[in-house]
Structure formats: C-alpha cells, structure tokens
Amino acid sequence: MEKAASESSLACARCGEPALLQCPKCAQLKLPREGAAFCTQDCFRAVWSSHKSIHTKLDKLTSGLTTQQSLEGWKYCLKKGRARTSQLPRFDWTGPLRPYPISKTREVPDEIEKPDWALDGIPKIEPESDLQKRVEIKTSEQIERMRETCRIAREVLDAAARVIKPGITTDEIDRVVHEETIARGGYPSPLNYHFFPKSCCTSVNEVILHGIPDARKLEDGDIVNIDVTVYYKGVHGDLNETYFVGNVDEASKQLVRCTYECLEKAIAIVKPGVRFREVGEIINRHAAMSGLSVGKSYCGHGIGELFHCAPDIPHYSRNKAVGIMKAGQTFTIEPMINAGVWHDRLWPDEWTAVTADGKRSAQFEHTLLVTETGCEVLTARLLSSPDAFPWLKP
Ligand code: MF3
Ligand code: CO
Ligand code: CO
C-alpha cells in the first residue's frame, strides 16, 4: 500500500471519504487511480477479495503487451470490418501460431493522396473497372510513375527488414512501414483495403499470406514475410520478401531459398508472347524438385492505377490462365511455397491464411513490367538493400 500523491483529491472506493492510500498493484499496472484509492487500510482490506480480480483480469487480457499498449485499446481482430474483441476467438488452430491484439488505426496526413477505400474500407473503382477483364498496356507516362512508386515500396520494405530481430513485434514492423511510406508522400495501400486494419501484411511461420501485424514478438527461429504495397502518384507498387529471425533451422532455410528461386525462375521467362499459364509450370517444377508444394488459393495480379486487376497469374501447374504477355503490361508474381500440403485455412479474422497442416510457408513477390525483350523488375533490390539472404552474398 502506497501513499496516494498528495495533490490528488480522490474518494475512497469503498466509503467515499477522502482517499490517502492507493493500491500498489494498480499503481504498478498503471490502472486508473479512481477505484484504486482508499481512505484506510480497513476499507482496502474490506474490498480486497473483489478488488484484486481486476489485476488478474488485466494481466490475462494483456499478456504479451506492455501496460502502455494495454491502455491504448489493443484488441484482437475478429472479423473484416466488425467490432474487435478482447478475447482470443475459438478456432481449430492448424499450427503453434496464435493471433495477438492489434494496435489502434494509424493515421495518414490529409495532404497524402489516398485510394478510394481509405475512408470507408470499400474499393469502388477497382471492382467495377473493365481492367478486371482486359490487361492494360501502360503508357510511358504510367510506366514512369510505376517505376517511382515501386522504388519507394522497395525502400520501405528494406527499412522494415532492417528492424527484424527476436523480440520485436510485427506491429513495430507495421509502424516502420507506415511511417516510411508517409515520409515519402505515399499511402500504405493495404490500410483499410476491404477493412484490412494495418499498413502491411506480416506472415509468420505457418501463415501463407495476409497476416495482420499484431503484438506478438518475433522469436529466434521464426520466418516472417513482410508484404508492402505503396500508393503514390496514382499507382500501386507491390512486393514482399521472407526473412529469417535469428537462427533458423535448415528446413526453413531451404524453404525460403527455394521460394526465392521459384520467383527468379518465373521472372526469367517473362517476355512478350509467353503464356501467363507458363509461370505456374516453372514455379511448380522447381518447388516439386525440393519436395515442396505450391499455394493455389492466391494469385499474382495486374497492378497499376488499380491494386488488383487482370491478369490473374496462378503459381501452380496445369492452371487455366488465358492470354499471353505483351510489352507494357505490369503485374506481380508472388509464389507461396509450403513445406507440407498446399491447402490453406482462414483464421476467424478472415484475413490470415495459414497452411492446413500447420507447416511453414514462404513467399516472395515483385512487380514486373514486360519489355520488348523480357522484363524489368520494378521492385528490384537496390545496392543499399540489407543483406538478408546468404545466397546473394558475392
Ligand atoms: N500485397 C498483397 C498482394 O500481394 C495484398 C494485400 S491486401 C491486404 O497482393 F488487404 F491484405 F493488405
Ligand atoms: Co500482390
Ligand atoms: Co503484396
């Protein structure tokens, strides 16, 4: 029991008399002083059995959170666009990973140009556009804007990659992505896209993609994918990479390296005249060679003034994608490679896609421009990019 600060004029939580004493546990947890102040030891003792439960309630709710975070209203993401909850939802989790509370919505300054979902969570132009059916050939002016935006997206991803280490939360990664994006005058495209609550996706271990940044601390041995999309000068640039956290087991190293190679090999065939469906053949062949499987539920996509548009580019073999590549098209390739089965399940948050068997999954993504002779990787690594991958060392 501590003396309440003398300038306070709090009433005893039991009898209403002026309170001079404060519950020490509440003070330690930085709980509101109202309801935690008492006039005498007698009053404090009299209510102790009911009072003490607020300490344990708070402890459970915020396990893994600092007190500051718990006071900022962190809650679990329950469902797209729905109210959040303070309780972990019931679910047949496929692996060891669990969701953690997510922080409050991050703000974007008024001066930054925003896509049409920023305010209400609903993309309006995108689903109605004829570019869902027809693959646009970009003008040189659009291409120049795509180059600038993709370069920014790369710089943002690199900044996020530099803070990865055991103990940092995926929410802290999201903060870096958010701040680095707005510092460059961009809008983080995922923020409020179909109600996605954060500024990037962070997908840990068995998460295939669309993981929501939250209060979970990265652990030594984890793998984490960071997927960044930036909206700048009216166009989107989209890329992702999977990183090692501390010392990772050999099988995870193989998984991440093979996924990197799948994307490299797919990029190598991109040029005018090649069938979109060929991309999946190349990726599947390389993954299968290492005994790995290819995620089938999510595809690469056209990108530009729209975040997601035609063409759809499946990453698996014997897919039914129609059409051939033409110079001036921009699209992503973003293979997801799994250590076990290809099948996925969705968490109750309706975003996080995990492997059905709980084994690990890795992903890499680039935004590409088809050129007359091949392709330009608009989100290519820079000389300044961090050395995240041992196989790229000279
Ligand atoms: N960047 C992802 C992609 O590669 C899309 C994320 S949408 C979000 O297509 F809403 F989940 F953020
Ligand atoms: Co993408
Ligand atoms: Co992406």
Descriptors:
9 helices; binds 2-amino-4-trifluoromethylsulfanyl-butyric acid; alpha+beta; disordered N terminus; three-stranded antiparallel sheet; 18% strand; four-stranded antiparallel sheet; Creatine Amidinohydrolase; 18 strands; 394 residues; 26% helix; elongated; binds cobalt (II) ion
Q: Can you describe what's shown?
A:
By secondary structure, the protein is an alpha+beta fold. It has two domains: 2-63, no CATH class; 125-392, Creatinase/methionine aminopeptidase superfamily (Creatine Amidinohydrolase). Helix content is 26%, strand content 18%. It has nine helices and 18 strands. Strands 4, 5, 7 and 8 form a four-stranded antiparallel beta sheet that branches. A three-stranded antiparallel beta sheet has the order 1-2-3. A hairpin with a 6-residue loop joins β10 and β11. α8 runs antiparallel to α9 (278-289). The site of one cobalt (II) ion has 5 residues, from loops.
